User: Fold this.
Amino acid sequence: MKKLLLAAAASALCATGALAEVKVGMITTLSGGGAGLGIDVRDGFMLAIAQSGRDDIEVVIEDDQRKPDIAVQLSDKMIQSERVDVMTGIIWSNLAMAVVPAAVNQNVFYLSPNAGPSPLAGKGCHQNYFNVAWQNDNLHEAAGAYANEAGYEKTFIMAPNYPAGTDALTGYKRYFKGDLAGEVYTKLGQTDYAAEIAQIRASDADSVFFFLPGGMGISFLKQYADSGIDLPVVGPAFSFDQGILQAVGDAALGVVNTSQWNKDIDNPTNEAFVESFQAEYGRLPSLYASQGFDTANLLLSALEKADPSDADAFREALRAADFDSTRGDFAFGPNHHPVQTIYAREVIKEGDVFTNKIIGAALEGHSDAYAADCKM
Amino acid sequence: MTLDERYINGLVLIGLLALPLWALATDEPFTITLVTRAVILALAAVGLNLILGIGGMVSFGHAVFFGIGGYAMGILAYHAQTYTALDLGFFETDGTNSMPVIWLVAMIMSAIVAFFIGLLSLRTSGVYFIMITLAFGQMFFYFAISWAQYGGEDGLSIYVRNGFPGLNTLVPIQFFGICFALLCIVLFLFSRLQSSPFGLALNAARQTNARVETVGLNPMHLKLLAFVISGAITGLAGALFADLNRFVSPTMFSWQLSGELIVLIIIGGVGRLMGPVIGACVFVALEHFLGELTEFWHVYLGIILLCIVLFGRGGLIGLLTGKEGAHV
Amino acid sequence: MSSILIIEQILNGLQFGVMLFLMAAGLTLIFGVMGLINLAHGSLYMVGAFAAAAVAGVTGSFFLGLIAALAAAALAGAIIEMVVIRRLYDAAHLDQVLATFALILIFSEGTRWIFGSFPLFLNIPEALSGPVSLPGGIEYPLYRLTLILIGMAVAGGLWLLIERTRIGIQIRAGENDREMIAALGVDISKLYTLVFALGAALAGLAGALVGAIQSVQVGMGEPVLILAFVVIVIGGIGSIRGAFIGALLVGLTDTLGGVFLPELFKLFMDTGAAQKSGSAIASMGIYILMGLVLIWRPTGLFGARA
Amino acid sequence: MSEPILATHGLNKSFGALKATNDVSIDLMPREIHAIIGPNGAGKSTLIKQICGGLRPDSGRVVLCGQDVSGKTTQARARAGLGRTFQISDLCMEDTVLENAVLGAMGAEGVAWRFWRSALKTSVLLERAEAALDRVGLAEERNSRCANLSHGQRRQLEVAVALTLSPRAFIMDEPMAGLGAEGSKRLTGFLDGLREEAPILLVEHDMDAVFALADRISVLVYGKVIATGTADEIRSSQEVREAYLGDEI
Assistant:
C-alpha cells in the first residue's frame, strides 16, 4: 500500500503553502498478481495530473493487493480518514462491486479507469459513478461484430467459469450472428489448455474466440500456437496488451483483438500521450495507461468548471466529458458509461517489440446493453 | 524481563479497547475500522486455536467456516435487500437484516459443515489431516467461484450494514463495540472450556490418544465436538467480517486465508488464550505499516515470520513470559 | 465424441500427470527422508521457470535455459536447506508450515522485485515446436510428447537412483531410521542437503519445462504446489511410487473430468447450464478424489499403514 | 469355585505367516496375581492389546466379569472395568501429575462432557485423583509437570491413573521396567496389597518380582501358552527350561 502524495508542480519551497483543494483517492493493484495493470493505470493517471500543472490536487494512492476485503478497507480509509472527494483506480470487477456501491452512496464520486461490471451499468447505476473505460461486455461485443465482418460462421468460444467470463461469452453471442462450434468454461487460473485445444481441434469451428485475462491468456496462446491448429483467433484486448504481449511472443502475431484504444489512433492528444508516457517511464503505454490518462483528464476538465463540493455542478461537468481523449471522440451515455468506437487491431512486430495496429472499426458509437435498465 | 501471562492478557484487552476510543476522540475513524478488522480476525483464530492449540489438529481449511459465515450473511442480507424469497427447496423464507439472526445461522451452518468435514477428516492424522482439510477448503472455494446465483467470483455486495437492535452499526465505533463484545464473550467461554473436563480431555487427546482411550473416553468424539465448536466460532467471525466489509466473496474460502489464520496463532502463541488476539493485532499492524513503507512488504513480512519460527518458539506471548509451551 | 479426441485427452492427462510427478517426487522425498512439509516447493518451481526464461532470453538457447533452471533451483534449494530448513527438522509440523509459508512470501515478492510485475517470455525450442502425427491420425504437439517422455525418463531415473545406488540406499535407510544411517557413518546433514537440492532441481526442471508453454509469472508455483500436495497425499506421503501413480491419477482426473463431465451433464441439461455445472464439479474433481482416497485409505494408496 | 474376573477363550492372531497368538486361553481369578512371562517376541504385547481392545483377534473371545467384550472398543472395555498400564509410560507429558490423575477420574466418573466448571475444582474428580496419588506416594508431586518426573515416578503415575478408574481387573504391562532394585521392591510390595482391590494380570520381565508376587504364572512362547502353574511348578517345568534356555539342557 504505497502511499504517494503528490502536489503536482509544488516546489519544495512552497510545499507547506500549497493547500490541496481537491483530494483524489486511488485504490489499485500494485503488488502480487496483476500488479502490472494497476501500475499502468496509476502511471497514466499521474502523468496527466503532472502535465496539468495544477498544484492543488492531492492523489492518495493505495495498493489493494487484488483482495476485495483490502479494497473495502482502503475505501473506508479514503472516505473516513482521508475524506477524499473523488475515488478511482480499481482494476477488477469483483473489487469494484465491493467498493463502488458503498462509496458512491456516501457522496463520493467514483471514476472507473478499468472495470465496468454490468450491474453498475444497469439497475445498479448511480449518479456519482462514471465509467471512463468500457462496460465489461463492450470489447466482447465488438469481437462478435468483427467476427461477422470477417465472415466467420462457426466459432468456438471459451472463458473462465466466473461472472466476467460469463459476461464475455454473453457479450460475444449478443453480436455474433453465426453458430457456435462449442462453448467452454475453463477453471479460473487454469494454466494448461491442452484439453480445450483438443476440443477445438475436434470441433468443426472456423474461428476461436476467447477471453482469458492475465497469465491464462499467455498460456493459452502459446499452447494454441504450438498445437498446429491454424483457425483464426479473436479476443478482447486484454490478452494482447502492451505489458503482456512480450511474454506471448510470436504466438500472438496476427491475432485480431478488439480495443477502444491503440497507440496509433491518430489524434494529437494520443500522439502526445504516447510520446510523453514513453519519455517519462521508458516503456510503451498500454491500454490501461491510456484509460488512467483519460480518467485523469476527465477529472481535470470537470475541475476546471466546478468544485466537487458543489456536487450537482461537478456532476454536470463530468457528464459533459469536455476533454480531449486519447481515443478520439468520447461521450457518456445516459448511464454514465462511454459511447465510443471500438476498433479491431492486429498484433504486429515493430523491430523487436510486439505491438498492435488498428485494422478498422468493429463498432462505432457503441454504447452498452444495460443502459435501458438504468433509472437515474 | 518476563511478565505474567495474565497481565499481558489484561493489557492487550485494555489496549484493544483504548485504541478505538482514542481514535474516536481524535476523529480517526479508519483506525477504528482497522482495529475492528484485527478483532474479527482474532475471533476467527480463537476458533481455530481451540482445535489447533488444545486439540492439536492443524486445520489448513478453516477458511471454509469463515466463508460459510460470510456467505450466510451475504445470502440472507441479499434476499432481504432485494425483497426476494430464499428458496431452500423444502421451504421458502425471507432474508434478514438482523445481525443476531445472521450470527445464529452462520454458526449453525458452520457447525453442521464442520461436523461432516470433521467426521471424514478425523479418520486421518498428521500431515494427512492438514491436507484433507486443505482439500475441503479448495472444494468450497471452487464451488463459491462457480456459484453464479450469489455472484460467483465477484461475490455479493451489501449496501447497508446489517442491523443490531438499539445500535447504528454503520457508525464504526458501534460496530467495533459489537465485535469486541463478542470477542470477549468467546474468549471467556474459551478460558472456561480450556480448564473444564472437556478441555482437559481434549488437551490429553492431543498428547496421546491411547491414554485417553485407556481411561474410557473416546478421543474421536472429543475431537469431533471440538472441531464443530471451532467451526461455529470461526463461522461467527466470518459473518462479522462480511459485515465489516459489507461484502462477501470466494476469497474468504481461499487457502491463503486458512494459512493466515494459522500464522496469526503462531505469531501470538499456540494454545494461549490471547495468542490469536495478539497475533491478529500484530498481523494487521504489520500489514498496515509495512505496506505504507514499501510495495514489497511481503518480503519483510516473510522475514519477520521466519524469525518468529526460528527464534521465537512459543510466539510473542512465549517471548514475553519467557515460557515456551502454553502449558508450562 | 471421437476416439481420437479421447486418446488425445488421455495424452494430455498423462502429460499433466508426469509434470506433476516432477513436483511431487521432490516433495514426497523431502517428506519421506526429513519429515518436512515444504510449502516453498512451489517457489522453487517458479525459480526454475524464471531462471530458464532469463537465461534463454539472453543466450537464445532453450537448452541452456534448462540447465540454468536446474542449477538455480538446486542452488536455491541447497541454500534454504542450509539456512532455514535445517533448523526445522525436529520442529512441529506447524512450525514447518509457517516457516515455509514465510519463504513463499519472500520468494514471490523477491522475484517480483527483481523481474518486475509482468510475465516473462519463454518459448519452446524451434526443434520441438509444432505438432507431429501419431499412429491413428492423431495430431499431437511434439513438445508435449517430449514432456511425457522426459517425465517418464525422470521417473525411471529416480527409481534407479533409489533402488540401485549407494545414495538410494542411504535415502531409503533415512526414511526408516535417522539414527540408523548416522550409525552407519553417513553424514546426515550432507545427505539432507543433497536430497533437498535434488527435490528442488526436479521442481525447477518442471517449472522450466512447463513455463515454456505457460506463463512465467510470480505466483505460478502456488497452484501447482497445492496440486502436488494432493498428489502425494493420494499416493501416500514418502512413497515415490505413490507419487507417480497419484500424479497420473490427478492429471487424468483433472483433464478428463473437465472435458467429459460437461458432456455427461448435457444428457440431462441444456448446453450452457451443463457447461457451467459440469466445469464447476470438474474443478472440484481432484479434491473430491483426494477426499475419497483418504476416507478409504487414511494414509494414501501407498502410505505406511498406521 | 468362583467365576474368573477376566478370561480369554481361544484367542488367535496372525500377522501373515507369523502366528503371534496361538489359541490362548487364560483367566484371572478374584484377588489373584496372574503373571505372564515369556522370551522377547513371544507375543505378550500382542496378547495384551487383544485383551484391552487395541487389536482385534482373528478368533476367540475376551470375557470380563461374565460379559463378552470381544467386539468392544478400548474405551468401552476401560469403562467396563479394565485398568491398564503401559509398558512405556504413556502420559500427558505437558500436564501436571494431578491433571493426569484427574483425566483418569473423569473417565471413571463419566464427566468428560462438561464444559463450564474447571476440572481441577470439581470435587468428585479431585478426591478420586488425590486418593490414587496418595496411594502410590505421589501426593507431594501433584503439581509437578509430568515431563519433569523421574522414570520411577512416571511408573507410579501410570499405576495411579489406572487406580483412579477403580477397575475390576488390572492389566499391567511391565510395570517394573526400568525401575531400580529399590523401586522394584517398593512396587512389588504395593502390588501385593493391590490384589485385594482387583486382581492383576501382570506381564513382567523382572523374575524376582514375578516369583514373589504371582499366584499363577503362564509361560508364553511363540504365541502359545506352554505352561500354567504356581511359581514352583513353573520353576521345575522341563518345557519352560527348554523354551528359555534352548536345547542346552
